[in-house]
Each structure stands twice: as C-alpha cells, then as structure tokens.
Amino acid sequence: MDNNPGTKKDSNPVPVIVPKQPEPEITKKINRTLDHLDVDRGVPYMYNVNTQLPKDIRLYKEFTVTDTLESVLEVAGTPVAYIDGYATDAIETKVEGNTVTVSVKDFARIHGFKEIQLYIPAKIKSDVSDEALNAYENRTVPNKATVAFKDSNGQTGNKESNPVTVRPRDPEKPRDPDPNEPVKTVGPADGSNPTEKYYLTNISDEFRFDITTKVPSNPVDDAGNPVQDAQGRDVKTELTGVTVTDKIDNVLKINRVALKIEDDKVADVTARLQTKLDTKQKQI
After folding, report:
1. Are 146 and 248 in a shared domain?
2. Measuring CA to CA, which residue among 237, 72, 75, 220 is closest to residue 142?
3. Domain presence at residue 277
4. Torsion 112-115-117-118 (CA) sign
5. Residues 106 and 145 in one domain
6. What is this structure's pTM?
7. Is 211 within the bounds of a domain?
8. Other CB atoms within 10 Å distance of the CB of residue 187
9. Under DSSP, is residue 30 helix (H, G, I), strand (E, B) or coil?
10. In this structure, are 156 and 43 located in the same domain?
C-alpha cells in the first residue's frame, strides 16, 4: 500500500446467491390412481389434477390451472377445486364448454398450504362417432392439464401435467340364441347397443331388457335340406305353444312390454299377442 490517498483498487467480487424457489409441479390421474382407463361411452369417471403451490405463493401475481377436454369427451358434472382438501373462495373455478380453469384470487390466504386439488367428472360422449374416435391412435383419447403463473419477480411460466388416456370399450356382441336357450341383453331404452351389462348414468334413467329366443323349426340335415320320413314327406315340428318368462326384481318398474316376431307370415299373430301383452301390462 502506498502513501497516495488517491489510489483506488477494486476487490474480487463476492456474490450472494439468493436461492430460487422451485416452480409449481402439476400431475394428473384418472379416478385417483390411473394413467389409463378403458370405459364405456357415456359412463362418468373422474380426472384428478393436483398442483403444488410454491412456498412463496403469497408473492405471486398470477396462478391458473387449466384443463381442456378433447371434443369427443364432455364434462359430466360440476368440477370442484380445493386447497389441501378445504373449500375456499380464495380460488375460483370456471367451466366454459370443455375447458375448466381454477384461478387464485387471494394469494395471501393460501400461504402455507401445499396444493390445489381439482376434480373434473367427465365421460366419453354417448353419441360420439367411430370416425371421430378413429382420429386418435388406437382410439385412445389423451388429456393433459397446465398451470400458468407469474412469480414474485414478474417472471411468467407454465408447465404441463403428465398425459392420461381413456379408451372406449368395444360393445359386447350378444351371442346368437340357440333353440330352447333364450338370450337376454340390456341397454338404452331406445334398443341401441344391447350388451350383457349396462351402466346407468343416473339412477332414474330408463333402460331396456331384450330377450331373444329361436322357435324350433322344421328339422334339416347338415346340408340344410328338410329331413324326410320313410314316405318321403318333410318332417314337421308341431308346436302347441311357446312361453317366455322373465322375473323382474321388485326394485324395478316395468314401463312397457313388447313382442316382435321376425316372420311376415305371423304378423297377425304378433298383433294379437301384443294386444294381450298390453292388457297384462295394465294389470301389473
């Protein structure tokens, strides 16, 4: 060091590193634990979106969770959001079509909490076409959620969740009935897509049972030719009556009973039997 008071020198820099708070993380599941679900069309399931809150959330300027469902899906109820399991007006949930958003309105009030939990009831549309579903690889419909934010320094960012997928189950094809072995199916009230199992969306929804049975016909050989007796006459199957019985559980209500015989020659018989059924129905 010299005696010249005008001499100045700078020391080496010694920066102080301010720890950066970790950015929020967002994860998504189906029915709490699943990454993929095979589900019937029109049957509700739940999307679970969990978004971690930064420790300095009280200093954030914006914080929004967004989830937009694919067009072949639809929101099947009222989405709800909680902070660590508690309902609060510090966050606001909005639904516009297939888009659900959760926005933080009061950052100070959620300081110290850990995550936003968003629940979205959804379903594959009942009337979605095969063409629309075939646009997705293996008919598997993906979905992701995002979180967008502006932190305490005014820096903006966004993150996507992991993808989750749903795929429509192929409807079960009812087996063809054998003689003396009736087949029973269940499905929508309009008779479309009968299967061996049907999920109701609401307990009050109407549904329909169908019972199909083949009436024994004249016997034929392996080639499909009529079997003949010793005199060369076609063997006939003589029927004196056919009865189909179905016992309905007493927790169900019968709205209507109908009969269909797939043979033009018996149309008049069908009409007479339907009249009898309608009379019996009034007595139920």
Report:
1. no
2. 72
3. no
4. positive
5. yes
6. 0.60
7. yes
8. 19
9. strand
10. yes
> How many angstroms separate the CA atoms of 283 and 277, rounded?
10
pLDDT in tens, 170-199: 766 656 656 567 888 888 888 887 888 887
Concatenated DSSP letters for 53-97? Answer: PPTTGGG-SEEEEEEE--TTEEE-S--EEEETTB--TTEEEEEET
Q: What residue has token string 């029915």?
A: 31
**Both 53 and 163 in a single domain?**
yes
Please state, in angstroms and rounded to a whole number, the distance separating the CA atoms of residues 201 and 47.
17
Q: Is 112 left (phi over 0), alpha (psi -120 to 50) or beta?
A: left
Question: How many Å apart are CA 58 and CA 270, to the nearest integer?
Answer: 75
The Cα–Cα gap between 106 and 83 comes to: 12
CA-nearest of 51, 79, 78 to 65 is 51
* 179 and 55 in a common domain: no
In a domain, 205, yes or no: yes
pLDDT digits (tens, 9 = 90+) for 133-177: 999 999 999 999 999 999 988 889 999 999 999 999 876 665 665
Q: Among candidates 145, 160, 174, which has minimal Cα distance to 23? A: 160
Domain around 39: 26-168
